[in-house]
## 1
Amino acid sequence: MPGSTASSQVSTASAEPATSGPVVELVDARKTFGSVQALAGVSLAVWPGELVGLLGPNGAGKTTAISLMLGLRRPTSGTARLFGLEPRDLRARSRIGVMLQESGIPLTLKVREVVDLFRTYYPQPLSTDKVVEMAGLGEFQGSLVGKLSGGQRQRVYFALAICGDPDALFLDEPTVGLDAATRRSFWDQVRGFKRRGKSIVLTTHYLDEANALADRVIVIDHGVIRAEDTPEGIRALVPGKKITFHWRGVTAADLAGLPVEGLALDGPRVAFLTSHAEDVLRALFGRGAPITDLEVAGAGLEEAVLVLTGGR
Amino acid sequence: MVAGQVQAEFRRLRRVWEFTGFGLAFPLILYIFVGLQGSGPGAAEYHKYALASLCTYAVVNIALSTFGISVANERGSRMDALLRATPVRPLAPLIGKTVAAIAFALAAVLLLYAAGILLAGISMPFEQWFTLTWRLLLAIVPFICMGFAIGYLSGPTGAVLAVNLILLPMSFASGIFFPINSLPTVIKDIAPYLPMYHLGHLAWNAVGVPYDDLWKSVLWLAGYSVLFLAITLWAVRREDDRRFS
């Protein structure tokens, strides 16, 4: 059942593919690079048909976690399993599709040709036309890869990820560097693929992306899982707005009784999070607070993680 | 899977006309400058000798570029990371590249043959053409291994530099452009240790130049294959540890 990691069936033998059990599993996975501990004991499972979002700031360990799931790296300790198998097992690899953050494709091939090439790696690929349609490559399928824009190239990488008709899709920060419209259309493509009933693991540092796509969000920071819940559950943990302003001579007492969290006073500068922005502002103005330089913004990921990590 | 790789490699070659054209045209141009001189007695022998030399050069150039530069590019662009997440068997791209390189080398060599016949009036019995061809194509192996070593030891820019810095001096020192006897003593001493020297001798011998140490040269080339393969495996292992462990 999605959302339950405590009751995962841990397969101890990876000799045969599991017929039930999680699609992807990390059990107390740790990864150290020299003196840096990128993952400090992460356990998670992804079940068939769900889209799990791994949400965290840069350097949180998301890419490392995905590398372990894919067998690109081996855990320093703990285990990683893909369909119950060792991730480097070709039987497991044949059932996944991947979009990596750092990636390259032959620049001198046309888009359709690259899709053709990658299709030959898989036992039961989708037809090239189907891939072109699902990834929205129609307009530029005859163009050279080297001549594509950033957004177009991301679509090609997505096409390469889905061309093998994988049972599990791994997307590592797929919309970094794209403009808002492109990101949204990418989300549509991901949703389209999800409708086929496959599992998807998505890493992102965009809260709105996790909200838009994930059935379940796992918040990771400094190599450790901080929270795990549905997007609504995560949102409920995080006050919605961040408010900052200047108030000469302000003291903590001036803000007493207001529903604010993470209050930070730095000279005249005040910053806090709240889910009741309008009420708080109304109360402050009612008290005649001499506020200047007022800014109200949506609480971002840093604020979310701040709250979830206890507001260090 | 292998067929797909071969097809992709051929497409790549067709696409990058600058690279492919250069690989085909440059030896041809060199040949026209270097290989057509002379008339009178001994000229016919010289023409054949020059043809064999430039064929050697073309084959080595293609081996080093196909394996050296494109492998380094794939590593530099991190395409190898993406490929690792796919179920592609490592042998498939390798076979694809080898087939494409041999076809490319064959094309370059045939072009030179045509120039030799049409422009220099070279005439040889069929066995000599045949022997020259299969010796060149077989002895491409140590240079494929050398290309791999370069590709895994260098970044994309470094590989291009390395191939250029290695190819031309090695060609000169091996007697490709000027007969070995006319080279300075220091270089004459180094020459017999160079792999291209031995390939050159196999090629010259195919067009009728007597050569006693045929098997010695074959052993040298085999030895270099093993050496470069070992270097490549070491470099691959090192990269594996750094990026994929």
## 2
Amino acid sequence: MSLVFAGVCSHAPGITGRAERADPVLREGFYANLDRMRAALEAARPEALVIIAAEHFANFFMNNMPALCVGMGEHYEGPIEDEAWLRIKRTRVPGAPDLSRRLITQMMHQVDLAYAEEWKFDHGIMVPLHFLTPRYDVPVIPVNINCQGPPLIPLERCWVFGQALRRACDAAPERIAVVATGGISHWPATPDSGKINEAWDRAFLAKFLANRKQELLAYTDADTHREAGQGGFEVRTFIALAGATEGSTAELWFYAPIPIFAVGCTVAVVKL
Amino acid sequence: MSLYHVQKFLYQLNRDPAVRRQYEQSLDGLLESYELTAEERRAIREPDIGLLYVMGVNGQLLMHYAALRGFEWDAYLEAMREGERRYGPVRTGLYVRAEGSR
């Protein structure tokens, strides 16, 4: 059936955990667009939601770090963090193991993947789900791109992964939604938390929205680290989604730096 | 330096309820399972969040340990800044500052 929905959103833990400390006008504007994204996702009636995330040492560590991993569990649990810290109640999220298995099997023709039948969701997935599927009633297939512990997968391989995902979704009869979630420039959990390079973000977003492959793949990690912080490595999630929707442009529904959330808060939806 | 083991301890503490129970019973006993230097053991036990940051511990691990040890968000950020003042720049890892970046 292929993709019925594709979009990107931010996932920073401050979005829920430090909500009251944000400028209320910006926060409500951001929340309103996350809710608009929820409505659009629901209108697309997905049977499964693939969420391309960049987790933060919840499941994967430097003892055995996959560059790419896809969930194949019957269910997942999250958040792994303290519920009071993140202000999201721990819950069980349904998986789609049969569809996962078919997608993974198909994608392996183009990319080498790890898979996982157990997966504890951290804020990187739970914050988006909290807003987009608040009843946790849409089966989820989590994808992780290692953006934390270098060496990291090159950007062009993220694009190839996105294309493999699209090809696999096209071959499946189910209605599938894909949401990528990552930060653009940010320095999370460091003394520079709250610093955001808005000009860099807007330049990156312009390339993402226009699906300009060569320009997206021209970024280097050294430049990104210098200009956009170590959090900027999470642009891999955007690039995977751009690969999955090659030839389609996207519409920016919201972007604003919200320093207490430690990221330029973003909502964008691809015009499939 | 055994930064890998410091981070492994924090990773397991953050995610594994059994490790959390061991931590609550005896932190010293739990730390015996990890290959740590005396400085690293001290930084974990005190806790010296600033020193852990300067050692290069990833903030995605460290911020949860700081919260567990009672550091509110602003206190966590300040502890890292204090660490840089006391111990100098971050020694290794992603947070080493490029020259002139500050």
